[in-house]
């Protein structure tokens, strides 16, 4: 067994047990509430040498529980528990909480002065979502943080993630058509701003996927009276001769250089070395795309 923690505080009222109250011990258990309240009164009277003239002032202080240093019931801010006793860090937002830490009550239901977290007012009386459902963030880790889901095209519950379903609907897939819906699948994708009537990417439907492509182009050239050596010489820049046909004076083995007329086939090459793949892409880095629930 442990001793009750006494606080020098005049309790204005003493809680009465009800027949419906559960049997619950511990520091904050209902069975210890009236005992602790009486102990607090006793300590207050001892500390004030039975000076009842301060009773009214302390009773008023008891009413001002909204100046607490923490809340009796922690609230969630962007999915992170927050009771006003310490700063918090919201995943993908990285702004610290700004709460009132004056006062000495531990049973407050709200903060004395409402604070804003990412512009959203918060006084501790209700949960808030500082980042709107449907926001997309990239993270340098392999798993989604609290309050986020991987943007991997998965089918998720319409009721469990009601806020996200209200934001997305079935735009990225209807799931089973009844109880689930699909998240956007951003794995391996580059993002492109929606054209929204500008005309650079016309006739593009919002949230649609676009395959990779290379703009069509052609190139041709002729040359004559070029000095051709045995084998071939590279051209300057991003191309080189891939094949050589030459008509000249004598055989190249006998005449390593001479006047000739011929044609060439262009092939890719930067310094005669080409990086090839099954797609066209810029230099890039892979991070985890997540969506706010």
UniProtKB/TrEMBL annotation:
Q: Which domain of life is it from?
A: Bacteria
Task: Give every Phage tail collar domain span.
Answer: 134-191
- Can you say what this protein is called? Phage tail fiber protein
């Amino acid at each position: 067994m442990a001793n009750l923690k006494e606080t020098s505080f005049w309790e204005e009222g003493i809680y009465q047990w009800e027949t419906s109250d559960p049997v619950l011990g511990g520091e904050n258990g209902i069975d210890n509430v009236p005992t602790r309240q009486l102990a607090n009164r006793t300590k207050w009277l001892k500390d004030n040498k039975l000076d009842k003239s301060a009773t009214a002032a302390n009773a008023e202080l008891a009413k001002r529980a909204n100046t607490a240093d923490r809340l009796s019931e922690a609230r969630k801010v962007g999915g992170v528990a927050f009771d006003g006793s310490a700063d918090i860090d919201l995943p993908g937002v990285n702004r610290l909480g700004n709460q009132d830490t004056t006062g000495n009550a531990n049973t407050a239901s709200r903060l004395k002065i409402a604070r804003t977290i990412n512009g959203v007012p918060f006084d501790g009386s209700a949960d808030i979502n500082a980042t709107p459902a449907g926001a997309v963030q990239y993270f340098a880790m392999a798993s989604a943080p609290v309050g986020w889901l991987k943007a991997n095209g998965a089918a998720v519950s319409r009721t469990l993630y009601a806020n996200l379903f209200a934001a997305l609907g079935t735009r990225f897939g209807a799931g089973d058509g009844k109880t689930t819906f699909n998240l956007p699948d951003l794995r391996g994708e580059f993002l492109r701003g929606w054209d929204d009537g500008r005309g650079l990417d016309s006739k593009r439907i919002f949230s649609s996927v676009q395959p990779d492509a290379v703009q069509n182009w052609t190139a041709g050239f002729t040359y004559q009276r070029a000095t051709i050596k045995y084998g071939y010489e590279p051209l300057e820049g991003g191309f080189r001769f891939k094949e050589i046909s030459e008509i000249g004076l004598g055989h190249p083995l006998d005449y390593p250089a001479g006047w000739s007329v011929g044609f060439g086939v262009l092939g890719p090459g930067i310094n005669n070395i080409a990086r090839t793949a099954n797609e066209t892409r810029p230099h890039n880095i892979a991070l985890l795309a997540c969506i706010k629930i």
